[in-house]
């Protein structure tokens, strides 16, 4: 497995396991957790730079592989379980949006 993919997968598993722990659930009832990435893989590093998962191009390009990245959010009191959002957003919007709604 690609080391980049392995690292990302491990972080997601640890984060999800921690959030589903009953001790954590009770002490953090309204915490916002956001897991995302920056703009696509570094193609100049070849197999070590990540993967765009079948999308065209990589970091620095105007194609989807250059800017489309996963984003996982957990906010128990605001985001229902199982919701999938396909809207376009940018991480530049996160700070002002969270500041406004909290």
Q: Brief description of this entry?
A:
The chain has helices spanning 3-19, 22-27, 64-67, 94-101; strands at 33-36, 71-74. The protein is mainly alpha-helical and 102 residues long.
List keywords for this structure.
102 residues; mainly alpha; 4 helices; 34% helix; globular
Can you offer a commentary on this structure?
The chain has helices at residues 3-19, 22-27, 64-67, 94-101, and strands spanning 33-36, 71-74. The chain is mostly helical. It has one domain (3-101). Strands 1-2 form a two-stranded antiparallel ribbon. The protein is globular and about 45 Å long. The protein starts with a helix and ends with a helix. The mean pLDDT is 79.
Give the domain tally. 1
Q: Termini separation (Å)?
A: 40 Å
Low-confidence stretches: none
Sheet of most strands: 2 strands, antiparallel
How many β strands by DSSP?
A: 2
Rg from alpha-carbon coordinates: 16 Å
Structural class by SSE content? mainly alpha
Helix content: 25-40%
Order of helices and strands: HHEHEH
Mean pLDDT: 79
The side-by-side strand order for the widest beta sheet comes to 1-2
Count of alpha/pi helices = 4
Shape: globular
Q: How much strand content do the residues show?
A: 5-15%
Write the layout of secondary structure elements.
Layout: H1 3-19, H2 22-27, E1 33-36, H3 64-67, E2 71-74, H4 94-101
Antiparallel strand pairs: 1-2
């Amino acid at each position: 497995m690609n080391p980049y993919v392995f690292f990302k997968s491990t972080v997601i598993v640890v984060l999800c396991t921690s959030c589903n722990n009953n001790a954590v659930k009770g002490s953090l009832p309204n915490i916002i957790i956001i897991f995302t990435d920056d703009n696509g893989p570094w193609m100049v590093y070849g197999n070590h730079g990540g993967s765009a998962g079948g999308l065209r191009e990589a970091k620095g390009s105007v194609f989807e592989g250059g800017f489309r990245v996963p984003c996982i959010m957990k906010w128990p009191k605001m985001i229902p379980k199982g919701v999938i959002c396909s809207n376009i957003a940018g991480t530049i919007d996160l700070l002002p949006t969270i500041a406004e709604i909290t």
